[in-house]
Design brief:
It is built from ten helices and twelve strands. It is of the alpha+beta class. The N and C termini lie far apart (about 60 Å).
């Protein structure tokens, strides 16, 4: 009887959080709310609620509330809880790659995976109810090139279109290769602006990624205005740059080169429009 009372109290508390527009809570918060209940009882109650698809644990000690509109899927979209989760882990982050591209309008490239860039070392990927959260580690989180996007639960931090394009090239192995990266950049280029390729941006981004992006915008996508802005900014910072392959790790011998961008064209890029 006591155990059932504790369970009902926890469920009522969670439903109250939900009524306030909250999608998450922590194990510590639940224990603090019911100080007269043992931690074992709280753990058991949470397990029962999880079995009933009322909550799901997406990280140790961190729970997501399954609201009625997502009860059939048994999982809330990561966009609604990722900011709270990353604050809980204490790791700087931003929504990146295909997930950021979708937020910027590259909708038909939407992926079943949700991509989060976070400071090294990266968190381990997690899969819950068919949704995979893929964490990609990077040494530095570049706050100058991030934007805030409003969601039903608050705000999330997202890479701007220009950084998203660079990340798609730099981390292309995570999204299915260079052809897919170029296809997403084709859509992203509609919201990319020359003004964003500042001296600060050019200094932050690896030179080879600028070469690859410039080549793709110039010769594959046909966004010459953007490409020329990048080229001018690169020329102002670097007096010279080395010849680099379009596709890293792929054979270069016998492949033609682009003299402007100094790119060895060792891959024929096909855009999926």
């Amino acid at each position: 009887m006591q155990q059932e009372r504790n369970y009902n109290y926890l469920q009522n508390w969670i439903e109250n959080l939900q009524a306030q527009g909250k999608y998450t809570f922590t194990y510590e918060q639940a224990c603090a709310q019911f100080k007269d209940v043992s931690k074992t009882a709280v753990t058991l109650a949470l397990s029962r609620l999880s079995t009933k698809n009322k909550v799901v644990s997406v990280f140790k000690g961190f729970y997501v509330i399954i609201t009625p509109e997502y009860s059939l899927k048994g999982m809330v979209p990561p966009l609604l809880f990722i900011d709270s989760l990353m604050k809980y882990t204490g790791k700087p982050y931003y929504v990146g790659l295909l997930s950021a591209a979708a937020l910027h309008g590259a909708a038909h490239q939407r992926s079943q995976e949700f991509f989060v860039m976070n400071q090294l070392p990266p968190l381990r990927p997690t899969t819950k109810k068919g949704i995979k959260i893929n964490y990609v580690g990077r040494k530095e989180i570049p706050n100058s090139f991030l934007v805030q996007r409003k969601t039903e639960s608050g705000f999330v931090t997202v890479s701007n279109p220009e950084l998203t394009a660079i990340d798609l090239l730099q981390y292309e192995k995570y999204i299915g290769g260079l052809n897919r990266a170029a296809s997403v950049i084709y859509e992203l280029s509609e919201v990319m602006t020359p003004e964003q390729f500042t001296e600060e941006f050019i200094s932050f981004v690896p030179l080879v990624m600028l070469q690859r992006l410039g080549y793709i915008l110039d010769n594959v996508i046909g966004r010459t205005e953007l490409a020329n802005k990048i080229y001018k900014a690169m020329s102002n910072k670097y007096s010279n740059w080395e010849r680099m392959p379009l596709k890293p790790g792929k054979m270069e011998k016998g492949c033609p080169s682009d003299s402007k961008w100094k790119i060895v064209i060792n891959l024929d890029i096909e855009i999926d429009e």
